[in-house]
Specification:
This protein has about 500 residues and is of the alpha+beta class. The chain has a domain at about 345-510: Alpha-Beta Plaits (2-Layer Sandwich), CATH 3.30.70.270. It has 23 helices and seven strands. The strands form two sheets. The protein has a five-stranded mixed sheet with strand order 2-3-1-6-7, with helices on both faces. A hairpin with a 4-residue loop joins strand 2 (about 405-410) and strand 3. Helix 2 packs antiparallel against helix 3. The longest helix has 26 residues, at about 285-310. The protein is elongated, with a radius of gyration of 29 Å.
Length: about 500
């Protein structure tokens, strides 16, 4: 039988489960770029078991929320639309596939391996910041489904393999007898189920991920699948002696993670196993095995680090110099050359990140728009050299008034923006007053003697009760407050929410 003949036979199997009605609807929703959250919630809610699991995962260690989600809509907001669709699809598909009991395969081990591979693949994706982490989880969970399908299409196909056979043995046996391995047949099934192209294409390449460039999203996707599978195989190996060092080398070769990052991945996978076991209602690994594996990973890291220290001791001084230069270059690219504050480009990137986290996790986020009063007059009277001195001293004063986790950036000519994550309205007002006082105490020397400097500040705070649709809207609110501070005489701060409340009060008195 040719590989194509077997592929046709595989597709024709009537007793191999295809996606359920709910899963089919979820796949259709996932392909709609304009899908609304309410339609997703409606589709998922038709399956109470999936709904319960989505709620559970939103409140699990995967997302580490401070406040638990109370209903499905809250859970969908927390984990995101794509993650919800992918997770719901995985629960629906796997619930059907688990009903199979193939011959010649250690099914409990097969199922534990699938869950471990999925958890590990997603963790590798997080470590290298690969996109589509939830899709990677689903693809890794299903990447060996072709084994079950082959067993359905050719009864007792795997019965000649010893129970102790490992993943590499499956691949060799399949290729020898069928012309292709199970990754290729899994990809055929996933494509026929109309899963997104990136899922089945990554599965098809998962046994030879080097065939896809590591600089592309598809290449990183396939590499995460391959490494998730490798780590699962290592964890479930009956003889783990010596399995981690070559895996660590493969991780470095495929995705560039060193021993420390690899050890963190192993630790993260072990910590997520209880959550995964609860979500998929099965047992993966007992606590002793998990602890032993962690100990081996830590030992690997210690031995490798010691070896590395011995090898590079003679080059340590040179390495230190190069590292310092690299860090200085990276830091320089993020900073305004005159003041040393963060530059506008880096500010935009970090502010977008902080705003997204505030929205997703329900945190407060405050910004202070600071403008130096009458700097143009100083420039016109004393020259830009003194004006530049004012800008540099102002930066130092602003930085002295905020926490190390806050951001001070030069927004434009004489304007600065201070970003204060996790800061509510009262705290940011206290910080603004410190800034006013610090700058007012500042003096720069001119030919006519000391020159006093003041600033005006506009404040805006994102909270769960005062939401803004975008970072631009938040910036516009702070700019509006700054304009009000200027109109009120300068050397003061105004808060957007106070202005809004005043306007509402004035309107109600008309």
């Amino acid at each position: 039988m040719t590989p194509q003949d077997f592929e046709n036979r595989l597709k024709a199997q009537v007793d191999f489960p295809s996606p359920s009605r709910v899963a089919t609807e979820i796949i259709a929703l996932a392909r709609d770029p304009d899908i609304e959250m309410s339609r997703v919630a409606t589709a998922i809610s038709r399956d109470p078991a999936i709904t319960a699991k989505i709620l559970r995962i939103a409140n699990s260690a995967f997302y580490s929320q401070r406040r638990p989600s109370q209903n499905l809509r809250q859970a969908l907001v927390i984990i995101g639309l794509n993650a919800a669709l992918t997770l719901a699809l995985s629960f629906s598909l796997i619930s059907a596939v688990r009903a199979l009991r193939p011959a010649g395969i250690d099914y409990p081990r097969f199922w534990r391996r699938a869950l471990l591979a999925a958890t590990a693949a997603r963790t590798f994706a997080d470590a290298i910041k690969a996109p589509h982490a939830e899709d990677i989880f689903l693809a890794a969970l299903l990447q060996d489904i072709g084994v079950l399908a082959i067993d359905r299409a050719s009864r007792d196909f795997y019965s000649q393999l010893p129970q102790s056979s490992v993943h590499a043995d499956w691949i060799t046996y399949e290729t020898s007898n069928l012309g292709k391995d199970h990754a290729a047949y899994t990809a055929v099934l996933l494509q026929s189920w109309k899963l997104p192209d990136r899922i089945w294409q990554a599965v098809a390449a998962s046994h030879k991920p080097q065939t896809l460039s590591g600089d592309t999203d598809d290449g990183r996707f396939a590499r995460c699948l391959a490494l998730g599978s490798d780590l699962a195989e290592a964890v479930l190996s009956t003889d783990r002696s010596g399995v981690l060092p070559p895996l660590a080398q493969r991780v470095m070769a495929l995705v560039g993670l060193g021993n420390e990052a690899f050890t963190e991945v192993v630790s993260r996978v072990m910590s997520l196993i209880p959550e995964t076991e609860a979500l998929y209602e099965t047992s993966i690994l007992d606590a002793d095995d998990a602890e032993n594996l962690l100990a081996e990973a830590r030992e690997l890291l210690a031995v490798r680090n010691l070896h590395a220290l011995q090898e590079v001791s003679s080059l340590q001084a040179t390495t230190s110099v190069l590292l310092t230069r690299t860090e200085e270059a990276e830091d320089s690219s993020r900073r305004d050359p005159l003041t040393g504050a963060l530059n506008r480009a880096w500010l935009d990137r970090l502010l977008d990140r902080e705003f997204t986290q505030a929205v997703v996790f329900g945190r407060d986020l405050s910004i202070a728009h600071v403008d130096i009063d009458r700097l143009k007059n100083i420039n016109d009277k004393y020259g830009t050299e003194l004006g530049d001195e004012v800008l540099k001293n102002c930066t130092i004063k602003l930085q002295s008034c905020v926490r190390g986790s806050d951001l001070v950036a030069r927004f434009s000519g004489e304007e600065f923006l201070v970003v204060l994550p996790g800061t509510d309205r009262n705290i940011v007002k206290q910080a603004a007053q410190r800034m006013l006082n610090a700058v007012a105490d500042m003096r720069v020397t001119s030919p006519d003697g000391p020159v006093g400097v003041t600033v005006s500040i506009g404040l805006a705070t994102y909270t769960t009760r005062q939401r803004f649709p975008s970072t631009l809207a938040l910036l516009e609110a702070a700019d509006h407050a700054l304009y009000a501070a200027k109109l009120c005489g300068r050397n003061r701060f105004e808060a957007y929410e106070d202005l809004a409340a005043t306007n509402r009060g004035a309107s109600s008195n008309r």
